[in-house]
Each structure stands twice: as C-alpha cells, then as structure tokens.
Please model this.
Amino acid sequence: MPETSASSPDPAYGMISVKRHWRGNALVLCSAISFGFMPIFARLAYQNNVNVRELLLVRFVIAFLAMGVFLLVTGRHVIPARNQLLVLLVLGAVGYFAQSTLYFTSLLYIPVSVVALILYTYPPFVVAGSLVLGWEKMSLTLALCLTLALVGLGLVANPAGNIVLLGVLMALGASVTYTIYILVSTKVLRNVSGEVASFYVTGAAALTFLLSNSLTGGINISWSLQAWIWVLLISLSSSLAITTFFQGVRLIGPSRSSIISSIEPVTSIIAASVVFTESLSIYQSVGGLLIVLATLVTAFSKKTQKH
Model:
C-alpha cells in the first residue's frame, strides 16, 4: 500500500493502518489461545493411551483436510510460486515436524508450566534474528514489553523440584526450531495467504508423520471415543491456530507477534488449573499479570518501525 505525503496525510490511510494493526493483534491473540489449549488436550489424550507420533499424525491429517475443505468452499485456493511452495513444504515437513515432535514429547517428561517457560525463550531469539537480518528495529516499547513478557513467563513457570534434562533439551529444541520457522515463514508470507500457507504446511507435516510412523512400527489408531475427542480438539485447534498466526504475522511482524503470543502459556496454566485442579502460586499469578500487561501494552503501542 503506498504511503501518503507527509504534507497532506490521508485520513483513510490512517484508519486502514489502525484496522490492520488491530486485526493483526486479534489474529495472533486467537492463535495463542488456541495453541494454549493444545497441551491440555494432549495430556488428556495421553491419559487415554494415545502416543505422541500417532497423535501428531492424526492432528496434521485432520488439520490439512479441514483447511482443504475451507479453501475449496471459499474458492481461495491458489498454487504458490515454485520457490514459495518449496519453502512451505520444507516448513511443514522439517520445521513443523521437528518443532511439534519436540514440544509434544517434552510434555511427557516435564510439567506444562516448565515447557511453556522454555518454549517462550523464542521471542528474544526472534527479535535477535530480525535485528540481525535487518527486518525490524528495536524500540523502547518493544524492549519493555519483551522484558515484561520474559519476567512474567519466569514467574508463571516457577519450576520447582527435579527437572528431567531430556525434557528440558526437547523443549529448548522446540524453541529454537520455532524461531527459525517464524523467521522463514515471515519472509515467505509476503505473497502467500495464511490459509494457503497453512494448507501446504500441514499437508507436508502430515506426510512426514505418515512416513515416520510407517517406518517405526506402523500406525495404530484404534482409540476409545474419549481419546478421539481430545485428538479431534487438538486437530481443530491446530488448524485455527496455524492459520491465524500466519495471517497475524503478515500484518504486524514477527517480533510483535511473538510477544502477543506470550498469552499462550497463561492460557495453558489457567486451563490446567481448571481441568487438573492445579493451584496457582502467588508468583504464577503475578507472572500471569505481567504477561497480560505486556500483551496489552504491545496492542496499544504503535506498530514496530521497520527499515
């Protein structure tokens, strides 16, 4: 969209920019909340004898089919350019395969709160990557929000007791993989809609999990009805979360999206306290407030300046 002259600003352009800003914030917030419920659904699925590999296979197959039906009904499907299509397929087959495997497996070893803390080391990684690549310029507000979010996450996680090293390494690996995924997808999404990107990413991830399961013992999805309910909820949440995040990143950039997404662990911990009757300590409550504050300040601040 062309910029207007400084001497004769166009009010309509300003209104469009504000609408774009708030729409991006809302989309990323929706994505974060959807992602926040997934570890809860996963733990409930694990309790019903669902293993990680088969859970992720069904998750991505259903998300892929749901997005395909949506694109078909709305007539929004387009085939990206060859280079963009290749990047999207790699994002799904390698990036999302690795990140989701590490993340969902780490939930077997360490508490949800600790996984959330380690995973959300990715916002400073994204900011650092964006600055190094020259995509974004750090502002005082962005630095303040990032600090609040990280301090809040540390208080919310409040890890205590013995921590399994394998789980920690898996969660950290998920964070690093997610950082790369965000930076690459941001570059690609300049000319690809969120719905189309989601379709190809989930399809590639589904195919990779299908091949992986076939080569490592086969596929057994003869689950109970209750198990299927939790798996379906994960799949639908995944489809919604991936699409809205893609759309939001296009509107407000990776650094701001990462900070707003910090509402995800708050969602997970609150949901866990209700579903699993876990009580929040005073430190976790204060941390949750700091994260919400960081999200609100980010939403009300001016859009991140770019070079």
In short: Confidence is low (pLDDT under 50) at residues 1-13, 302-307. Residues 22-300 form one domain.
